[in-house]
Amino acid sequence: MKLNKEPYKGTRDFYPEDQFVHNHVFHAMKQATHAYGYEEYNSTMLEETALYAAKTGEEIVKEQTYSFVDRGNREVTIRPEMTPTFARMIAKKNRELALPARWYSYPNLFRYERPQRGRLREHWQLNVDIAGEKSLGAEAELISLGAQIMKNLGAGEGDFIVSINSRRLLNSYFKDILKLKEEDIHRLSKLVDKKNKIPKEVFIEQAEAILGGDCGQLLAFFDATHIQELEAVVGIQFFQENVGIAELSNLLQMLVGIGITQARFDPTIMRGFDYYTGIVFEFYDTHAENNRALFGGGRYDDLVGIFGVEPITCVGFGMGDVTARDFLEVRGLIPQYSSSADVHLCLMDGVALEDMMQIAQVLRGHGVTVSMSMQPRKIAKQIQEAEKKSIPNISVVGIDEVESQVLTVKNLLSGNETKAPLDKVHTLL
To answer: What pTM did the predictor assign?
Structure first.
Protein backbone atom coordinates (compact mmCIF):
# COMPACT_ATOMS: atom_id res chain seq x y z
CA MET A 1 0.00 0.00 0.00
CA LYS A 2 1.31 3.43 -0.97
CA LEU A 3 1.23 5.78 2.01
CA ASN A 4 -0.17 9.28 1.71
CA LYS A 5 2.45 12.04 1.94
CA GLU A 6 -0.11 14.68 2.93
CA PRO A 7 -0.85 15.50 6.59
CA TYR A 8 -4.19 14.46 8.04
CA LYS A 9 -7.03 16.64 6.71
CA GLY A 10 -7.31 19.92 8.57
CA THR A 11 -3.80 19.75 10.04
CA ARG A 12 -0.50 21.16 8.80
CA ASP A 13 3.13 20.27 8.34
CA PHE A 14 5.47 23.02 9.51
CA TYR A 15 8.54 23.16 7.27
CA PRO A 16 11.29 25.48 8.57
CA GLU A 17 9.87 28.52 6.73
CA ASP A 18 6.40 27.83 8.17
CA GLN A 19 7.74 27.24 11.66
CA PHE A 20 9.61 30.54 11.37
CA VAL A 21 6.31 32.40 10.88
CA HIS A 22 4.66 30.32 13.61
CA ASN A 23 7.45 31.27 16.03
CA HIS A 24 7.10 34.92 15.00
CA VAL A 25 3.41 34.86 15.94
CA PHE A 26 4.04 33.17 19.27
CA HIS A 27 6.90 35.55 20.07
CA ALA A 28 4.54 38.51 19.60
CA MET A 29 2.06 36.84 21.94
CA LYS A 30 4.63 35.81 24.54
CA GLN A 31 6.27 39.23 24.57
CA ALA A 32 2.92 40.85 25.44
CA THR A 33 1.88 38.32 28.09
CA HIS A 34 5.24 38.63 29.85
CA ALA A 35 4.97 42.42 29.78
CA TYR A 36 1.67 42.08 31.65
CA GLY A 37 3.12 39.71 34.25
CA TYR A 38 1.47 36.43 33.18
CA GLU A 39 3.00 33.06 34.06
CA GLU A 40 3.22 30.14 31.63
CA TYR A 41 1.56 26.79 32.36
CA ASN A 42 0.70 23.65 30.42
CA SER A 43 -1.15 20.38 30.81
CA THR A 44 -2.15 17.12 29.17
CA MET A 45 -3.67 16.85 25.71
CA LEU A 46 -6.11 14.22 27.02
CA GLU A 47 -9.02 14.97 29.36
CA GLU A 48 -12.07 13.06 30.54
CA THR A 49 -14.94 13.70 28.14
CA ALA A 50 -17.14 14.66 31.11
CA LEU A 51 -15.05 17.81 31.55
CA TYR A 52 -16.32 19.23 28.25
CA ALA A 53 -19.83 17.81 28.53
CA ALA A 54 -20.32 19.72 31.78
CA LYS A 55 -20.02 23.29 30.47
CA THR A 56 -18.49 23.66 27.03
CA GLY A 57 -21.66 23.02 25.01
CA GLU A 58 -23.49 20.04 23.56
CA GLU A 59 -22.57 20.83 19.95
CA ILE A 60 -18.86 20.94 20.72
CA VAL A 61 -18.88 17.61 22.55
CA LYS A 62 -21.16 15.64 20.23
CA GLU A 63 -20.07 17.00 16.86
CA GLN A 64 -16.63 18.59 17.12
CA THR A 65 -14.44 16.55 19.45
CA TYR A 66 -12.05 13.68 18.90
CA SER A 67 -13.38 11.37 21.62
CA PHE A 68 -12.79 7.69 22.26
CA VAL A 69 -12.96 4.97 24.90
CA ASP A 70 -9.49 3.98 26.08
CA ARG A 71 -8.30 0.50 27.06
CA GLY A 72 -9.40 1.11 30.62
CA ASN A 73 -12.94 1.75 29.36
CA ARG A 74 -12.67 5.48 30.16
CA GLU A 75 -14.26 8.12 27.91
CA VAL A 76 -11.44 10.41 26.78
CA THR A 77 -11.30 13.52 24.57
CA ILE A 78 -8.34 15.19 22.88
CA ARG A 79 -8.66 18.77 24.10
CA PRO A 80 -10.70 21.06 21.81
CA GLU A 81 -9.98 24.08 24.03
CA MET A 82 -7.90 24.96 27.09
CA THR A 83 -10.28 26.85 29.39
CA PRO A 84 -11.82 23.76 31.09
CA THR A 85 -8.30 22.45 31.78
CA PHE A 86 -7.33 25.84 33.25
CA ALA A 87 -10.42 25.74 35.49
CA ARG A 88 -9.62 22.17 36.60
CA MET A 89 -6.06 23.13 37.52
CA ILE A 90 -7.23 26.20 39.45
CA ALA A 91 -9.82 24.07 41.27
CA LYS A 92 -7.23 21.44 42.20
CA LYS A 93 -5.01 23.95 44.03
CA ASN A 94 -7.59 26.61 44.86
CA ARG A 95 -6.47 26.88 48.50
CA GLU A 96 -2.77 27.08 47.66
CA LEU A 97 -2.74 29.64 44.87
CA ALA A 98 -2.02 33.31 45.39
CA LEU A 99 -4.99 34.98 43.71
CA PRO A 100 -5.51 36.63 41.36
CA ALA A 101 -3.59 34.13 39.24
CA ARG A 102 -2.45 35.37 35.81
CA TRP A 103 -1.60 32.42 33.57
CA TYR A 104 -1.03 31.78 29.88
CA SER A 105 -0.40 28.74 27.70
CA TYR A 106 0.05 27.97 24.00
CA PRO A 107 -1.39 24.47 23.45
CA ASN A 108 -2.36 22.74 20.24
CA LEU A 109 -6.09 21.99 20.11
CA PHE A 110 -8.21 19.62 18.03
CA ARG A 111 -11.77 19.95 16.71
CA TYR A 112 -13.49 17.83 14.14
CA GLU A 113 -15.02 20.45 11.85
CA ARG A 114 -14.99 21.38 8.19
CA PRO A 115 -11.61 22.98 7.35
CA GLN A 116 -12.02 26.51 5.96
CA ARG A 117 -10.29 29.87 6.03
CA GLY A 118 -9.45 30.68 9.63
CA ARG A 119 -10.50 27.25 10.92
CA LEU A 120 -8.63 23.95 10.85
CA ARG A 121 -9.00 20.71 12.76
CA GLU A 122 -5.77 21.34 14.63
CA HIS A 123 -4.40 24.72 15.63
CA TRP A 124 -2.27 26.36 18.29
CA GLN A 125 -3.92 28.89 20.54
CA LEU A 126 -2.70 31.39 23.08
CA ASN A 127 -4.86 31.16 26.20
CA VAL A 128 -4.64 34.01 28.69
CA ASP A 129 -6.68 33.93 31.91
CA ILE A 130 -7.08 35.73 35.23
CA ALA A 131 -8.55 33.75 38.13
CA GLY A 132 -9.81 35.43 41.28
CA GLU A 133 -10.34 39.03 40.11
CA LYS A 134 -13.92 40.35 40.35
CA SER A 135 -13.40 43.90 39.09
CA LEU A 136 -13.85 45.05 35.49
CA GLY A 137 -10.15 45.80 35.58
CA ALA A 138 -9.62 42.15 34.62
CA GLU A 139 -11.59 42.56 31.38
CA ALA A 140 -9.90 45.87 30.66
CA GLU A 141 -6.44 44.38 31.23
CA LEU A 142 -7.08 41.42 28.94
CA ILE A 143 -8.49 43.60 26.16
CA SER A 144 -5.47 45.88 26.55
CA LEU A 145 -3.19 42.84 26.38
CA GLY A 146 -4.96 41.65 23.24
CA ALA A 147 -4.46 45.06 21.66
CA GLN A 148 -0.77 44.91 22.55
CA ILE A 149 -0.44 41.53 20.82
CA MET A 150 -2.00 43.04 17.70
CA LYS A 151 0.50 45.91 17.84
CA ASN A 152 3.35 43.42 18.29
CA LEU A 153 2.17 41.70 15.11
CA GLY A 154 2.39 45.01 13.26
CA ALA A 155 -1.24 46.19 13.44
CA GLY A 156 -2.03 49.88 13.18
CA GLU A 157 -4.80 51.56 15.17
CA GLY A 158 -7.37 51.14 12.39
CA ASP A 159 -6.50 47.53 11.55
CA PHE A 160 -8.79 45.99 14.17
CA ILE A 161 -11.80 46.71 16.35
CA VAL A 162 -12.94 45.21 19.65
CA SER A 163 -16.63 44.32 19.89
CA ILE A 164 -17.99 44.00 23.43
CA ASN A 165 -21.23 42.64 24.87
CA SER A 166 -22.59 41.12 28.09
CA ARG A 167 -24.04 37.64 28.53
CA ARG A 168 -25.53 38.92 31.78
CA LEU A 169 -27.43 41.58 29.80
CA LEU A 170 -28.58 39.12 27.14
CA ASN A 171 -29.77 36.49 29.61
CA SER A 172 -31.65 39.12 31.59
CA TYR A 173 -33.22 40.54 28.42
CA PHE A 174 -34.31 37.10 27.23
CA LYS A 175 -35.78 36.23 30.64
CA ASP A 176 -37.25 39.50 31.94
CA ILE A 177 -38.27 41.28 28.73
CA LEU A 178 -38.96 38.44 26.30
CA LYS A 179 -40.24 36.15 29.12
CA LEU A 180 -38.46 33.06 27.79
CA LYS A 181 -37.94 29.83 29.73
CA GLU A 182 -34.44 28.45 30.33
CA GLU A 183 -34.70 25.97 27.46
CA ASP A 184 -35.73 28.69 24.99
CA ILE A 185 -33.04 31.06 26.31
CA HIS A 186 -30.47 28.39 25.48
CA ARG A 187 -31.95 27.84 22.00
CA LEU A 188 -32.05 31.57 21.25
CA SER A 189 -28.49 32.02 22.52
CA LYS A 190 -27.24 29.39 20.07
CA LEU A 191 -29.18 31.07 17.26
CA VAL A 192 -27.78 34.51 18.08
CA ASP A 193 -24.25 33.09 18.09
CA LYS A 194 -24.60 32.26 14.39
CA LYS A 195 -26.74 35.31 13.48
CA ASN A 196 -24.11 36.91 11.26
CA LYS A 197 -23.35 33.61 9.50
CA ILE A 198 -26.88 32.84 8.23
CA PRO A 199 -29.34 34.76 5.98
CA LYS A 200 -31.47 37.33 7.81
CA GLU A 201 -34.71 35.63 6.75
CA VAL A 202 -33.51 32.33 8.21
CA PHE A 203 -32.63 34.03 11.49
CA ILE A 204 -36.05 35.70 11.65
CA GLU A 205 -37.88 32.46 10.91
CA GLN A 206 -36.02 30.54 13.60
CA ALA A 207 -36.23 33.38 16.13
CA GLU A 208 -40.00 33.69 15.68
CA ALA A 209 -40.35 29.94 16.19
CA ILE A 210 -38.58 30.28 19.55
CA LEU A 211 -40.42 33.45 20.57
CA GLY A 212 -43.78 32.18 19.39
CA GLY A 213 -44.46 35.41 17.53
CA ASP A 214 -43.01 38.53 15.92
CA CYS A 215 -39.32 39.20 16.58
CA GLY A 216 -39.34 42.90 15.74
CA GLN A 217 -38.26 43.97 19.22
CA LEU A 218 -35.46 41.40 19.20
CA LEU A 219 -34.19 42.76 15.88
CA ALA A 220 -34.37 46.31 17.27
CA PHE A 221 -32.26 45.16 20.24
CA PHE A 222 -29.61 43.70 17.93
CA ASP A 223 -29.62 46.75 15.66
CA ALA A 224 -28.38 48.99 18.52
CA THR A 225 -24.87 50.33 17.91
CA HIS A 226 -24.62 52.30 21.16
CA ILE A 227 -25.69 51.24 24.65
CA GLN A 228 -27.93 54.30 25.03
CA GLU A 229 -30.05 53.10 22.09
CA LEU A 230 -31.19 50.12 24.17
CA GLU A 231 -33.27 52.34 26.46
CA ALA A 232 -35.98 52.74 23.80
CA VAL A 233 -36.07 48.96 23.30
CA VAL A 234 -36.01 47.61 26.86
CA GLY A 235 -37.59 50.51 28.77
CA ILE A 236 -36.08 53.03 31.14
CA GLN A 237 -36.41 50.95 34.33
CA PHE A 238 -34.67 47.87 32.90
CA PHE A 239 -32.05 50.11 31.29
CA GLN A 240 -31.23 51.91 34.53
CA GLU A 241 -31.27 48.85 36.80
CA ASN A 242 -29.60 46.17 34.66
CA VAL A 243 -26.15 45.18 35.93
CA GLY A 244 -24.98 44.10 32.48
CA ILE A 245 -25.68 47.52 30.97
CA ALA A 246 -23.85 49.23 33.83
CA GLU A 247 -20.83 46.95 33.39
CA LEU A 248 -20.70 47.60 29.66
CA SER A 249 -20.86 51.36 30.13
CA ASN A 250 -18.15 51.33 32.79
CA LEU A 251 -15.87 49.03 30.80
CA LEU A 252 -16.10 51.05 27.60
CA GLN A 253 -15.33 54.22 29.58
CA MET A 254 -12.37 52.49 31.25
CA LEU A 255 -10.98 51.35 27.91
CA VAL A 256 -11.09 54.86 26.50
CA GLY A 257 -9.25 56.01 29.61
CA ILE A 258 -6.36 53.58 28.97
CA GLY A 259 -6.13 54.42 25.27
CA ILE A 260 -8.13 51.56 23.70
CA THR A 261 -10.07 53.57 21.12
CA GLN A 262 -11.15 50.62 18.94
CA ALA A 263 -13.74 49.25 21.41
CA ARG A 264 -17.44 49.32 20.54
CA PHE A 265 -20.71 47.88 21.87
CA ASP A 266 -22.13 45.04 19.77
CA PRO A 267 -25.27 43.31 21.14
CA THR A 268 -24.86 40.35 18.77
CA ILE A 269 -21.60 39.13 20.35
CA MET A 270 -22.50 35.91 22.15
CA ARG A 271 -19.46 33.57 22.17
CA GLY A 272 -20.52 29.97 21.67
CA PHE A 273 -19.42 28.36 24.93
CA ASP A 274 -22.06 27.83 27.61
CA TYR A 275 -19.78 28.79 30.48
CA TYR A 276 -19.62 32.56 29.82
CA THR A 277 -21.50 34.58 32.45
CA GLY A 278 -20.57 38.25 32.02
CA ILE A 279 -18.64 40.48 29.63
CA VAL A 280 -17.73 38.86 26.30
CA PHE A 281 -15.56 40.39 23.58
CA GLU A 282 -14.12 39.70 20.15
CA PHE A 283 -11.30 41.29 18.15
CA TYR A 284 -12.15 41.79 14.47
CA ASP A 285 -9.91 42.37 11.46
CA THR A 286 -11.04 45.44 9.48
CA HIS A 287 -9.34 44.39 6.22
CA ALA A 288 -11.83 43.87 3.37
CA GLU A 289 -10.25 40.54 2.44
CA ASN A 290 -10.30 39.20 6.00
CA ASN A 291 -13.23 40.96 7.68
CA ARG A 292 -13.79 38.41 10.43
CA ALA A 293 -13.30 37.66 14.11
CA LEU A 294 -9.67 37.04 15.02
CA PHE A 295 -10.05 36.01 18.65
CA GLY A 296 -12.14 36.63 21.75
CA GLY A 297 -13.09 35.68 25.27
CA GLY A 298 -14.97 36.81 28.33
CA ARG A 299 -15.86 36.24 31.97
CA TYR A 300 -16.81 32.82 33.28
CA ASP A 301 -17.60 32.81 36.99
CA ASP A 302 -19.08 29.33 37.46
CA LEU A 303 -16.68 26.97 35.70
CA VAL A 304 -14.28 26.34 38.60
CA GLY A 305 -17.24 25.56 40.87
CA ILE A 306 -18.27 22.47 38.87
CA PHE A 307 -15.34 20.63 40.46
CA GLY A 308 -16.99 20.82 43.88
CA VAL A 309 -14.92 23.70 45.24
CA GLU A 310 -15.86 27.25 46.04
CA PRO A 311 -16.45 29.16 42.76
CA ILE A 312 -13.62 31.43 41.61
CA THR A 313 -14.35 34.21 39.16
CA CYS A 314 -12.31 34.01 35.94
CA VAL A 315 -11.79 36.03 32.77
CA GLY A 316 -9.84 34.92 29.72
CA PHE A 317 -9.39 34.85 25.96
CA GLY A 318 -7.99 32.54 23.31
CA MET A 319 -6.12 33.64 20.18
CA GLY A 320 -5.40 31.08 17.47
CA ASP A 321 -2.36 30.95 15.22
CA VAL A 322 -4.44 30.40 12.04
CA THR A 323 -6.38 33.68 12.24
CA ALA A 324 -3.21 35.49 13.32
CA ARG A 325 -1.40 34.28 10.20
CA ASP A 326 -4.37 35.28 8.01
CA PHE A 327 -4.13 38.77 9.51
CA LEU A 328 -0.43 38.95 8.65
CA GLU A 329 -0.94 37.66 5.12
CA VAL A 330 -3.60 40.13 3.98
CA ARG A 331 -1.47 43.02 5.22
CA GLY A 332 1.84 41.83 3.82
CA LEU A 333 3.26 41.40 7.33
CA ILE A 334 4.59 37.84 6.99
CA PRO A 335 8.24 38.08 8.11
CA GLN A 336 10.97 37.12 5.66
CA TYR A 337 12.54 33.81 6.56
CA SER A 338 16.07 33.85 7.92
CA SER A 339 18.17 30.89 9.02
CA SER A 340 19.06 30.23 12.62
CA ALA A 341 22.69 29.95 11.49
CA ASP A 342 24.88 33.08 11.39
CA VAL A 343 27.53 31.51 9.20
CA HIS A 344 28.07 28.40 7.06
CA LEU A 345 31.55 26.87 7.00
CA CYS A 346 32.63 25.48 3.61
CA LEU A 347 35.07 22.57 3.74
CA MET A 348 38.04 22.49 1.34
CA ASP A 349 40.01 19.42 0.23
CA GLY A 350 42.79 18.42 2.58
CA VAL A 351 41.09 19.67 5.75
CA ALA A 352 40.23 17.04 8.34
CA LEU A 353 36.59 17.07 9.40
CA GLU A 354 37.70 17.05 13.03
CA ASP A 355 39.61 20.34 12.48
CA MET A 356 36.51 21.88 10.90
CA MET A 357 34.39 20.79 13.85
CA GLN A 358 36.88 22.27 16.32
CA ILE A 359 36.69 25.64 14.52
CA ALA A 360 32.89 25.47 14.61
CA GLN A 361 32.98 24.75 18.35
CA VAL A 362 35.23 27.75 19.04
CA LEU A 363 32.83 29.99 17.14
CA ARG A 364 29.82 28.57 18.99
CA GLY A 365 31.60 29.21 22.27
CA HIS A 366 31.56 32.92 21.37
CA GLY A 367 27.86 32.93 20.58
CA VAL A 368 28.03 32.37 16.81
CA THR A 369 25.47 29.92 15.39
CA VAL A 370 27.22 27.70 12.87
CA SER A 371 26.27 25.19 10.20
CA MET A 372 28.95 23.37 8.25
CA SER A 373 29.59 21.17 5.26
CA MET A 374 30.90 17.73 6.07
CA GLN A 375 32.24 16.84 2.62
CA PRO A 376 34.72 18.85 0.50
CA ARG A 377 32.48 19.42 -2.52
CA LYS A 378 32.95 22.26 -4.98
CA ILE A 379 32.90 25.54 -3.07
CA ALA A 380 30.20 26.91 -5.40
CA LYS A 381 27.93 24.03 -4.42
CA GLN A 382 28.55 24.65 -0.73
CA ILE A 383 27.80 28.34 -1.12
CA GLN A 384 24.63 27.45 -3.02
CA GLU A 385 23.60 25.27 -0.08
CA ALA A 386 23.99 28.25 2.28
CA GLU A 387 21.99 30.52 -0.04
CA LYS A 388 19.13 28.01 -0.29
CA LYS A 389 18.97 27.88 3.50
CA SER A 390 19.05 31.71 3.76
CA ILE A 391 22.24 31.65 5.81
CA PRO A 392 23.62 35.20 5.57
CA ASN A 393 27.39 34.50 5.77
CA ILE A 394 29.89 31.90 4.60
CA SER A 395 33.53 31.18 5.39
CA VAL A 396 35.77 28.82 3.44
CA VAL A 397 37.96 26.67 5.70
CA GLY A 398 41.19 25.45 4.15
CA ILE A 399 44.60 24.42 5.46
CA ASP A 400 45.65 28.08 5.94
CA GLU A 401 42.57 28.84 8.06
CA VAL A 402 43.13 25.76 10.23
CA GLU A 403 46.76 26.69 10.86
CA SER A 404 46.24 30.45 11.38
CA GLN A 405 42.92 30.15 13.24
CA VAL A 406 41.78 33.18 11.23
CA LEU A 407 38.65 33.20 9.05
CA THR A 408 37.51 35.36 6.15
CA VAL A 409 33.74 35.86 6.41
CA LYS A 410 31.71 36.81 3.33
CA ASN A 411 28.24 38.31 3.56
CA LEU A 412 26.17 36.74 0.78
CA LEU A 413 23.85 39.74 0.43
CA SER A 414 26.38 42.56 0.27
CA GLY A 415 29.37 40.57 -1.00
CA ASN A 416 31.59 42.23 1.61
CA GLU A 417 34.46 40.20 3.06
CA THR A 418 36.08 40.70 6.48
CA LYS A 419 38.79 38.77 8.32
CA ALA A 420 39.23 38.03 12.03
CA PRO A 421 40.71 35.51 14.47
CA LEU A 422 38.24 32.83 15.61
CA ASP A 423 37.59 34.54 18.97
CA LYS A 424 36.70 37.81 17.17
CA VAL A 425 34.50 36.50 14.35
CA HIS A 426 31.37 37.23 16.39
CA THR A 427 32.16 40.95 16.14
CA LEU A 428 31.85 40.78 12.34
CA LEU A 429 28.29 39.36 12.32
So the answer is: 0.91
